[in-house]
Amino acid sequence: xxxxxxxxxxxxxxxxxxxxxxxxxxxxxxxxxxxxxxxxxxxxxxxxxxxxxxxxxxxxxxxxxxxxxxxxxxxxxxxxxxxxxxxxxxxxxxxxxxxxxxxxxxxxxxxxxxxxxxxxxxxxxxxxxxxxxxxxxxxxxxxxxxxxxxxxxxxxxxxxxxxxxxxxxxxxxxxxxxxxxxxxxxxxxxxxxxxxxx
Length: 198
Known about the structure:
Strand content: 15-25%
Structural class: alpha+beta
Largest sheet: 6 strands, antiparallel
């Protein structure tokens, strides 16, 4: 991928904290907004989860071989260009960015091939809405004794005037909750990558 096609810095130069994918993507959106590398209207934030909060993803840095990583949720950035949608996933070993078609085939894989317990849903939120509304006090990463399950980012907490913590509203796959639109995996691919639907 040519650098001029990328709307973010290279993967190595992006703000990144392991296990804080929602904040990593917030920082990507912030970069796009401040640097004006793309219209924010073309940029979407995609939360991947399900009712059980058990979603398999392949080609993840923390994976082993061809086995999936089971996340409670995961967050990616989607640059929805007219000719091709591009995925920015800082936790993936796939290219950065990666075409949505390739990400779907190698990183998501079809729901029809996996146990229904693990079928994915996707909440798609416009980047502008995500930047304006997302808030996290990082309490979901705290242990019972007050420690961290993974070291937090060094920068200040992300919050809004209205909220200190609304991460669950983004992770929820109930359409009546939170921001954006909720899709099954098949419907998401029909909408954003028609030639790769599973």
